[in-house]
Structures
1.
Amino acid sequence: MRDYIGELKGMTREYQLLNESSAILAWDQETYIPPAALPERGEQLALLQSLAHKKLTSPRVGELLAACGCSDDAPWGSAGADTRDGAYLRELYRAYTRQIRIPSTLVEAIARATSAGQAAWAEARGKNDFALFKPYLEKVLSLVVEKAQAVGYQDHPYDALLDEYEPWMTTSEISRVFSGLESSLKGLASRISERPQVDDAFLYQSFSLEKQRKFARQIVKELGFDFSGGRIDETAHPFTTTLGARDVRITGRFREEYFGTGLFGLIHETGHALYEQGFDEEITGNILATGTSLGIHESQSRTWENVVGRSRAFWEHYLPLAREYFPSQFKDVGLDTFYRGINRVSPTHIRIDADEVTYGLHIILRFRLELALVRGDLKVDDLTGAWREASRDLLGIEPETSAEGELQDIHWSMGAIGYFPTYALGNLYGAQFWAAFENTVHDTDTLIRNGDFPVLRNWLRDSIHRHGASKTAGELCREVSGEDLKPDFLQDYLENKYRGIYGF
Amino acid sequence: MRDYIGELKGMTREYQLLNESSAILAWDQETYIPPAALPERGEQLALLQSLAHKKLTSPRVGELLAACGCSDDAPWGSAGADTRDGAYLRELYRAYTRQIRIPSTLVEAIARATSAGQAAWAEARGKNDFALFKPYLEKVLSLVVEKAQAVGYQDHPYDALLDEYEPWMTTSEISRVFSGLESSLKGLASRISERPQVDDAFLYQSFSLEKQRKFARQIVKELGFDFSGGRIDETAHPFTTTLGARDVRITGRFREEYFGTGLFGLIHETGHALYEQGFDEEITGNILATGTSLGIHESQSRTWENVVGRSRAFWEHYLPLAREYFPSQFKDVGLDTFYRGINRVSPTHIRIDADEVTYGLHIILRFRLELALVRGDLKVDDLTGAWREASRDLLGIEPETSAEGELQDIHWSMGAIGYFPTYALGNLYGAQFWAAFENTVHDTDTLIRNGDFPVLRNWLRDSIHRHGASKTAGELCREVSGEDLKPDFLQDYLENKYRGIYGF
């Protein structure tokens, strides 16, 4: 069997090099490409992606997986569930079977529908007119449901969609965790809304872009980002991307009139990047050298952004430096004002503007509607009303326009149904891991206050990063925290933090 | 036959998209890549290049070319030599036969030898010790000669090497043209050396990098570079590259202590870029959308850099602006001083530092030695002595070290034998085209003085650029100038220009 795995690894190595090449083209497309080059870049990317698809789904891969004893019941084959080779087979079998089960005619139909869908969505959002997007969303939704049927599932078609972003997670587990979370977030948001609002006007001043870049770069470096194998560039919609085992790039966006976007965005991307820069040498260059799920990935970015970057201790450490960079803007802002301001909670219609407390409610809203759409319990025709009702129920506010409601996110137009939950799972896993970290080092505040970030980075690397996808999200969660995912850790973290800030 | 060509165009389109993808990876490698990512980038590039090679050399391409009637005697097949389809078949047949005639074992041997050769060359140059490079050069040379035999030729194995860089050019034609050029350049350099030297000290001051960037960018834009389909970035060894039909990127290098490198380098690359941005829509996206030879490409860069950018009229137009950007550096520098300074002639050991007059002699030296090496008349063992002798003969100076002599250029270590002549051909074609342009517009000085660069760009586009590789270099030369390539135009241009500058 060893030889079969060796042959598979040679084939998936080419698959990976092609994916990295696509990532390079895509990175350039989001950062430096001249505008007239965009249409042909689409052709170049489509070719590389189809070559990668052919590599992965070649009949020989199927033969070798069968020879290794892989099946739906034992995707790790005869290598065993607990070995790295078993994990390699498990992840390859999952990716391979997903791709061969979706007929190429369906892949092409989805590509066409989402390409048209994105254009229609952009127009509809611009004109604030859901009717323009409706037929496209209906088409995308029906194809996505068809995809779920093709991939197959045990309990719920949504499981087959989740699997693309959050492997091995199930609809029922998310429902269980989100249901506990929902009531506690609503309760917390309600108690906060009864307290006097904190002031964050100091974040809205004029901040030199050049100084923001330097300040953020210094912090990113101190958090542990390895610039010998990475870069920072700028883009409209920041992201992290891996162009090679030693080539992890983060991107940011700076706004002159608002301090919050640039720095916190880059700390968030640094969290993603530290994960990608932390895989074991042993898995470098094979398909296990990747985040094990989007939820685990998001746990890393949100831990660094929110739990670390928006903590009081972090600004005890960095406020003096911030005052050096921005003396006139911050000289009269005290530590407590600063800390409270960057953690202001206030319900908003727009998810990406949401605070730590209400963010999860935005996700629960989308999860609820996606489930109903996929089940067929909700028609696209009725989406506007359903969105408003859910928003009133969860956030206590109701959008007056589609642009502030069901048209705000690009995801559905791209066919990315089953993606949203990973954002909330990130917060949940992050809090659960953080509690385990606190059990280990005890005084995390002192550690952050002293800028001892390597201690945290090394703990995360050792507990999470180095494994890449060789452990599933569930396995990692149990190994690091000793139990399955549950909402209690996030609830406790938020409760403690915001009780201090809002004083209830 | 039309259908055969259609099928070929579909196949070469994928070939081209893969080459463009490689170009994107290579551009990033020279501009933004983090250092630790370099080794894996080599793997990514090698995979894309091997996929492109497989596309081009697939048996189906051979069948279709045969079905189109292509042969060594009539590479344009039954489409005819004078049609665009014929030109397409001619260039495809040339590329295809070159690649299938070189056995893959030889391709791999050359890749290994040149990879080791480049490393050895860098070390040898650093230590100024030719002996360290000698065995590697012997290996590379023998493989390159083997390649020439595999490709085949009529008169001289060097023809088969030339063909890679300067298609359809022959050793005998270059010998004929270079022989006339040699005596005139030696004579001109000798007369200049008897005159008082011009002063260029004003170019060696401190020039803010940021201001140099802005100044050069403005000029590049005014010369006609299309930023909607292109970019400027910075790199150690500037180049121009085409990442797509509407994606042509130039690169520059600025030195704070010397004004000459940054601006003139970017004007040079702009010349290359205007060629690549000027192909007819009709050939966009197929293999004719490329420069027809390196010599023709270099004619464009050198025309803009030297004939235009180092003309007196150009600085009548731009010196006032240069004084705005660099008041303290240039306020006391008069137009004539400026013009003379940027055209200083002085023999140097290093080719890339050479002036317009002696540059050709550096190339003639290399051409002479390459011919002797390929013929076997000169042994690598005797290269140091042969170089010094040729340098004394041609340039009147003899390098005392190998680093200033036979180790100065990377080309041979890369197996690029037959490449150097294209640099001199660029000057020759450029002068011959320029004479034709002068016949059309008459007063080119006034045109340049007024900054009417679009007139020149449009004439070049109409006469040269739009054809891409649909006309060979020889065809272009005869069509534009009415005769075959000859040294007289370059000789007259240099004679007139430097008589004025040095006053003889």
2.
Amino acid sequence: MFNNVTIVGVGLISGSFALALKDKGYAKKIIGVSRTKASTDKAIELGIIDEALPLEEAVRQSDFIYVAIPVDATIPVMKQIMNLVTDKQIIADAGSTKFVLCNSLADHPMRKRFVATHPMWGTEYSGPEAAVRGAFKDRSCVICEKEKSDEDAVSLVEKIYKSLGMHIAYMDPENHDIHAAYVSHISHITSFALANTVLEKEKEEDAIFELAGGGFESTVRLAKSSPAMWAPIFMQNKENVLDVLNEHISQLRKFKSCLEKENYEYLVELMENANKITRIIK
Amino acid sequence: MFNNVTIVGVGLISGSFALALKDKGYAKKIIGVSRTKASTDKAIELGIIDEALPLEEAVRQSDFIYVAIPVDATIPVMKQIMNLVTDKQIIADAGSTKFVLCNSLADHPMRKRFVATHPMWGTEYSGPEAAVRGAFKDRSCVICEKEKSDEDAVSLVEKIYKSLGMHIAYMDPENHDIHAAYVSHISHITSFALANTVLEKEKEEDAIFELAGGGFESTVRLAKSSPAMWAPIFMQNKENVLDVLNEHISQLRKFKSCLEKENYEYLVELMENANKITRIIK
């Protein structure tokens, strides 16, 4: 469907996306752009990209440009790309925050060639080695400000995501960022904090963690996530993340108070309420 | 190896244990004891137990009695069992707390027939339907106060756990409870609290959680766990759980402060420190 596709960033998301584009026959050639030569070398070796080029050159050669880099870097890079593209090219991003980005690009004359997307899939790993086949399946992809993008651009991007097995949700950037804080960003913060809690203890006592089992592993695995990727997300979504974090700390304090006061009944009530999460995750 | 084995409680742990005993050829007949007829009926239907009997009758008929019920109920039930057994019988429990139980049983004349164990495996599900084949594999099993149990009892219990693929760790009950607070109990509390955080938000806005993806699911899945099982654990291990919970809240506050003050560098530092968790979980 495309001749050349450029992915900016050759990591977990862009790499998995590139593999899918190739597998589904959407791209003849995939060009990778990265500040780090080691990353593009690795991506070529892994068959994720066909060649590495500097951004300008890559954009000129491509029908479709997909940007998946830390959200703070996305803004200047996206402006640079928009300054280069024509009415025939399509751009999309995959960032975990949408409000600041959409606002920054709102007045650009080529805004209509850009589709603001957030495919809600990921793992705790990063870099080209983290890219996997079959990613994105059965997950949601949020598209923001659909009305600000050209119809041909939106429908092509939707078609790609749908063919990867994603269902599309439309949201304005503000709402996206609120929801992302609740269903993704807070989980990462609690995992990071839980890891630090346990590592603090580890300083005191060696070798106690041979016990760490399945429950611990699943609540803490996101603590392995990349700070370079996540710190800018938390910062850009600061207000919403702080709202959720304050609520979460106050929920933890309820548990604390139950234990301190040995209020067994209220403790059970808190847990029974938490059980209702099966409404959201089966 | 045994003729008859009794499991007290016919749920996730005891059920999975019973299935394993049968599969490994350790038991000819498994007797189930439960306050709830629906549970033993279900356990018979699922092939977990061969018959259901009242506690006294079951204990009299059994070579080995395995108790996996909420930790507050374990103490009186264990005393009742100890009052019934002879020198030929072996008892073990699977409880997630060890200090209060071991102390309560310390002076019982049949203490030596009891092995205090905690196989560190579980899922967020409960009841006989939650029992699975192949459970326990590659996980740790803690045995406490090994020296207070008869050698034949300890070595048989060890042999069973090892044959399920578990590695045995020896600890005194105090240390077990500290470590369990860090590697298991806190994960459950953070999950319960995270679920409540998100459900609090859900009250305000409908249908936002179609977005909930993999990261969220893994940090919150323990929130589906049984309050009847976990409330007594938190209560019995109150002091240790409060220590960890206080540390965890203070770690979360560090993230909060970074965001409030836009201290990007310290935020990255906190996350890089959290990344060291790969030392503990690969």
3.
Amino acid sequence: MSRIPRIVILGAGYGGIVTALRLQKELNYNEADVTLVNKHDYHYITTHLHMPAAGTDDPQNARVSILKLIDEFKIDFVKSTVVQIRPNDKKVILEDGTLSYDYLVIGLGGEPETFGIPGLKEHAHFIRSINSVRLIREHIEYQFARFKKEPHRKDYLTFVVGGAGFTGIEFIGELADRIPKLCKEFDVDPNHVKIYNVEAAPTALPGFDPELVQYAMEVLQKKGVTFKIGIALKECTPDSITLADGEEIKTQTVIWTGGVRGNRLVEEAGFEAMRGRIKVDEYLRIPGHEDVYVIGDCSIVMNEEGRPYPPTAQMAIQQADVLAHNLVASIRNSSLKTFKYESKGTVASLGKNEAIGIAMGRKLKGGSAAMMKKIIDLRYLYIIGGIPLVLRKGYFN
Amino acid sequence: MSRIPRIVILGAGYGGIVTALRLQKELNYNEADVTLVNKHDYHYITTHLHMPAAGTDDPQNARVSILKLIDEFKIDFVKSTVVQIRPNDKKVILEDGTLSYDYLVIGLGGEPETFGIPGLKEHAHFIRSINSVRLIREHIEYQFARFKKEPHRKDYLTFVVGGAGFTGIEFIGELADRIPKLCKEFDVDPNHVKIYNVEAAPTALPGFDPELVQYAMEVLQKKGVTFKIGIALKECTPDSITLADGEEIKTQTVIWTGGVRGNRLVEEAGFEAMRGRIKVDEYLRIPGHEDVYVIGDCSIVMNEEGRPYPPTAQMAIQQADVLAHNLVASIRNSSLKTFKYESKGTVASLGKNEAIGIAMGRKLKGGSAAMMKKIIDLRYLYIIGGIPLVLRKGYFN
């Protein structure tokens, strides 16, 4: 090859940033031009967003400046929004420019899936970015302040979380912890506050060990959460929701965590996709487009039973290792690695010092699970930023 | 008198709380029954409210629990809202009960005066209580969070303060200090933020020394404030204001500080009142109702030119001394004191370390005025709570 190959990475989420860091380490000088594109100049730790959303932690602790992670001598960073991917032209159109590539990595992340439920897209909040969680936090605080002006408006203090999956449950744990503090700050009687969790599936945390799910629900019920499990959300308006059983709940605050889909840009690019997600080959490439890799929420990896794994941070980080290896191998014409997901366990937090999980083949609950959650969080900080980042963002509280 | 006389004090603002404290000190055991009625179980320091409103200080620093100030063995405290004053029955109707009195002290405070400007009452915010300033603070923060979701909505970041009197100017000083911090917190370009101050009178801070007014405006203009002086506000809608010269400013946030009137309850009680304020006699009683004293924003005291003094904290505190003396004298059948206001100076803050004022016959500006402001604040804390309160709330920042 007479020219240095150009690698473009779209998105600096888990998949994108770890891929960039691995390439930065593996590639030799002038072996490839690597460009990382991201909408913000920071990477955010999505699995941590439920805390700033509830206001139990500073959003600052859930993000890291990209330029503090990557080495700008080795990787170009472009802060821009991707508008279009043109695989046939091998180009990416940005809001303010165009990039050509020889290899493309799509790590654009997912979008909320509202399943066509009327009003949800317009009126619900979503835990998806630093901006969206700051809005949720401010929105919640604002309701307390408004209630003190209009004390007959109990609906201001009714909070509905749609979805009892991982994000929904973790957010509820934090919210339930925050409510007593908000009540104290705004002189509000805690009895006026209601938290509902609505889930269409027959259980909270589907796929989790039933004993642990039971434990989680009991912990959250004790904190004042009312569960509506096995009941679908039918409609969302600016000041209420309606459930499938006809019940109407007056509320100004719906946080929807009930679904994630892939990115519309991958559909618009003409790739074969299911809800914005692409089934990748064993090397994490798009079949028929061997120069395009997909990682994270936009990719589908099948488990041994032929069903897609849920897209998680853990999945994206593991993909990044293989993906970066395969990119380097492609450039060097050496052999590619196949990807195989290996679950290292899963822990869901339920607020301060409470969690449930499976790790190293063992069921964990309470303080030990919460400790494991902290270790997982710190491990990720270590992966992307080493000891300095652990010390800076590790919030040992 | 065969029965112990009953004194009822309505309102625990500056006038009410200082009256109660003076009575507590002066009255002998079983000389009178004193009952203090207040809507909240705390007294708030109205002249400090512009800080928590802008978010530059904690609302906690602007209030004190009433039970920490009064001695419950000497004074009964009733947390309730006054519904009606019946001077002919010598009764006060509360939301949840009735009180009979021999002597009544009306210290119910004022209400915002909107001069019939359409939409102002419905859509503007007012700096008048702990609840209202918490709402302002949350409302402002919410606009920053909303802007990040809808970056085309520049009107979210336009803040209009109506009135360039004392409260308006002091609030603007704090708001201008807070904006850079909010911009940093929410990743907002400070150039998007606009602060307008609209005042119908031909000058800001009418009645103040023109040289000091000039200084104040320059300080605030440097902090980014745009003044519209001599231009009346014509209309306020949920998302705009219109000025008398036809200019429309798109905004979600109007804070109205342009006028204060007395309390509607004194009008409804049948007393002769002007905008809810009663012209009291030289002993601070209502002419024709010698058992009813009025203090603070509900009272009118004339200056030597026959014009009413503006109602201020300083005025109310001075009234309380004379009022308490006169109550005790009435009970003891000794002679009453006449009230005469004596200005001890006035300082308006313009944000951190900036102020203007007149004290001890001298013009002050900048750091020395700010220092004087701090001394005035601390002096008041000392008056109501002694050294312990000064230490607890004196926020030496």
